[in-house]
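[Q] Does anyone have a clean C-alpha cell version of this?
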Amino acid sequence: MKNENFVNSDIENILKTKMNELSDSVDCFDRISARAFPQEEQVFSEEGYTVSGLENITGRSRKPRLLKWSAVAAAAVVCIAILPRTGFIRQVFTNCGFGSIKKSYTRLITEINSELENGSYTVIDVPLDYYIENDVLVTPLFSCPFEDCGKEDANVKLFIKQIDGINTTQMYAALYTGTYSENNIIAAAESDFKFTEAETAMTFDDVENRISYSTALGSLFKTNDDGLLTDSDGNCVSLASFENNVITKDESGVKKLTSEIFYGHTDDSKYFYDILPYNYENELPPRDEMWKKSVYFNGNSAFPEESRSGFTRTEIFNESTNTSQTDSECEYVYPFDTISDNDQITDDELFLKGSDSGKQLCAVRIPSSPEAQMTFKMYFSALIFDESNETVKDQGVTVKDSSNNAVNSFSASQITNATNEYKIAEEERRINELIENQRELAREAELAREQELQKSQEQQQALSTQN
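[A] Here you go.
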C-alpha cells in the first residue's frame, strides 16, 4: 500500500502562520465565552435582550458564530492538509511513542545512525525507479526492499557494512525524497544479517580455483552470419558479467562468497541473469528474503507486494555445461579498464561496436558499484577478427555511451593477446588443481593406512593382555 504521509520541510513556515491564525481564533473564543457566560450580572433591556458590545437590541449577532466556524475550518485545513506533510506529526508520534509500530521505525533509524558512526560502510545512492527495475545491478543478492511510492524525486541510499574492505550482507537502506537528510527519509529497511565485533575483525583470502564460466559461454552461444552472438533459438543476444565479492554468514559460520553475475537480453525481451558462486556450497536464500524489515515512518510495511524487477533468474549454466574448454567463440573486454576516477562513465548503459564497421555487438546496462564495474565484462563473437572471413572488416572494438561518444577502445591484438594469456594461466591453474587433487588423495590414503595400522596395533595389544 502506498504511503502518502511524506515529509516536506518547505511547508514549516506555512504551518507556523496557520497556527498563529488558529491562536488568534482561540483568543476570540475566550472573548465570546466571557460575554456568553459572564461571571457578573449583565444588564438587560426592557425587551429581555442582553446588551453587549457584540449584540444589538434587534437580537443576537451572527458575527461570533461566523468567526467560530471560520476558525474551525482553518483548524481542519491545518490538521488535514498541512500537518501530515511536515515533520511535525511524525516528531510528535516519535516523542510520544505513538504505538509499537512507530517505535520499530525509530529504533531502525537509531541503529542506522549508530552503525554509520561506529562501523565501516560504503554507500550507494540510486533513484528508486532505477533500483526497482535494475536491482540485480545494484545489489545482486538482494531485491529492492521498497515499493513504488509514486514520487518522482524518490531515491534510495544503501549503506553496506564492510569487513576487511569487502562488502558484507549486513545492509541498510533509506528511502527519501529531495535532498538526503533524516527529516526527508520516508522509509527504512535492514537486511537479515548482523556481524559481531569479533567477526568484523576477521580477514579473508582471495578465492582460488575459479571455474571458467566465461570461456564456457562458447558452448552456449553461437555466432551467426553477421558475426553476432545468438542463443539456442537463433536470437541475437547481448551478454555481460561482473564479479560480486561479499562476506556473508550462515549456520556454518562467516565466509567470503565470490560469484559471477551473468546477464543479458535478446532484442525483444527483458533481461535474464544467473548467479554462479565459485566457493559456496549452500544454496542462497531468495533475493527478497535477504531483507528482514522494511517500514515507513508511520509503521506501515514498505515491502512491495510483488517484484517489478526487469531481471528474470534463468539457469544459464547447468551440470552438463562444459566449463573445462578454453577454445571459445566468445571474447570479452573490460570497458572500465584504464579509465581513471576523474573520467567516470555516467551513463547507465554502454554499447560495444566494431571499431571500423560500427556494427553493434553488445548493448547492456552496467552495474552500479565501483567494485563491480572494475570486473564488468562485455562479450562479443571472436569471429569478427577472423581474417579468413571476407565480411570481417573490424580491427578492434569501441565502447560507446548513449550519445555515441567513445569511452574506451581495444585493438584485436590486445584482445587476442589477453585471451591467450588467460588461456595459458587457465591451463596452469588446471594443472595445479590436478596436482593438488592428487596430493589430497595421497593424504587421504596415508591417513587410511595410519588408521589401519593403529587398529592392528590395538588388536595385538588386546591379545597380549588376554594372554
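[Q] Thanks! Anything notable?
[A] Residues 4-10, 40-63, 82-99 have pLDDT under 50 and may be disordered.
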